[in-house]
Amino acid sequence: MDKTDIAIIGQGPAGLSAAIYTARAGLKTTVLGCDPKVAGNYDIDNYFGFPESITGQELIELGCKHAQKFGAELRCEKVLSVYQNADGRFDIKTDQSELSSRALILATGVSRVRPGIKNISEYEAKGVSYCVSCDGFFYKNKKVLVLGEGIFAANQALELKNYTPHITICTQGKKEKISDDYNALLQKQNIPVLPGKVKELSGDKFLEKAVFEDGKTMDVDGIFLAMGEASSLDFAYSLGITTRGIFIEADHEQRTNIPGVFAAGDCVGRFLQISVAVGEGAIAGHSAISYLKELSG
Amino acid sequence: MDKTDIAIIGQGPAGLSAAIYTARAGLKTTVLGCDPKVAGNYDIDNYFGFPESITGQELIELGCKHAQKFGAELRCEKVLSVYQNADGRFDIKTDQSELSSRALILATGVSRVRPGIKNISEYEAKGVSYCVSCDGFFYKNKKVLVLGEGIFAANQALELKNYTPHITICTQGKKEKISDDYNALLQKQNIPVLPGKVKELSGDKFLEKAVFEDGKTMDVDGIFLAMGEASSLDFAYSLGITTRGIFIEADHEQRTNIPGVFAAGDCVGRFLQISVAVGEGAIAGHSAISYLKELSG
User: Fold this and answer.
1) What gap in Å lies between CA A25 and CA A22, rounded to an integer?
2) Alpha-carbon gap, residue B255 to B90, rounded angstroms
3) pLDDT exceeds 80 at position A111
4) Which ipTM was obtained for this model?
5) Would the CB atoms of B273 and A281 count as touching at under 8 Å?
6) Closest chain B CA to residue A63
7) Less Cβ crowding at N or C end of chain A, within 10 Å?
């Protein structure tokens, strides 16, 4: 498994600003993720230093060049899961590789993918879950449905195999985007992928049934949400990091409650602006440097 | 007196980033102060977006152009004092004009001018003061010395006239930089300006004497420090804002404890970097906009 000092998840302004600091400090820095939301073809006109506006795409390209100049490695890989192992390191699995890191900066922005199930909030903590490593245990040999169209959903379904053999993936009406490798793994584990869309849930005290758009129903004990790509929030759940709604709790030094894990940018949910993400990224980088210095004694 | 919606004191990255937001939101924005410390001829190589480094001077010029593009007025004036009047507005006096503002953003950076008096800390709150409007009252008809070489010291001395006629200014070994206008005012008020340097203080429980480098002594009851230019910290003292050492206390929204007053950048004392100042400036601007919206109901 590759080793790094600091893994940064998210290649937007927060992640790249953090990388500029950590790489410049001589720490091995690996930035994961690609195509950040901000990298579009629209004008940014309120980021200090660019009076003639610049497109998101151009700004991200400048940031990538900037981080690489100091030696940061940028890997365009989708992160599927992050766990902390017994010796405190962070084990990161992507769609292409595995990586072990001494410190972690979460900077994926905020995910807004909603499943579009009308009464889903009624069943939260009563069958609806966002995190296999947090809640999988409660579904031993139960029937579970994983909602999601991509490798993140596939990976969550494969993790659920540790708890139950009764797993189905439903793309929730989206086009399936699972890679051939992962489709082969799912087949081997007898995990079917359905194209339908759950529109409603039912059940007396706890979740009992999923109702699909075409009127069909399926008996289920649990639904795991894993739509789109895994976000900082998903990693926060599996690492046991304190959250506040869809945001991650971080202090003035961008530290989360887990030593060695920092968060910056939109996923922290202050003022969702590039300038703020850049400042928080710099602070997160600085805090990660201090953390590793202390670790090394 | 000129009126503005938002007065920003400090023309560095924090102040200009705040101005970009407030001016862009259509609020009348006046940025005071000039020649920020960062505007030098050295390279900045860790501000996201500039992989080929940029000088401080060039970056500030871009920032000024950026803020002006949205209509912010930049005034190269030295702020001498800020008070909040009974209707909640902020009255700002500069070396050239007076201005009344509905909200205030402090962003002057942090002042590092030290008087170089070896036992000064022993007499803090026992004769040594940083703020005429806070402590002048305690020196009614007493003998006071104002340390400082510029207009800020002159203005502090003139304010002390409300409390006592026994005032002397000492430039503390620096070249006197008081303007002709202010020198005329000092003469009219019989306030002498000495070129010496206080090296030590003496007194039993409270300050009694200042000892100069040449060995001479002067009987004094109070010493007011006003070296260099007035900084955010000085304005914080006179506005009753909570401070922490030489820094201003601000929350996640860059609010101080006084409604309508925000602080950003180095004067808040987090991680003293341009990227952080820019992010905090954006947040301070945003918070000031929200504050004025609420005020207007």
Assistant:
1) 5
2) 16
3) no
4) 0.85
5) no
6) B49
7) C
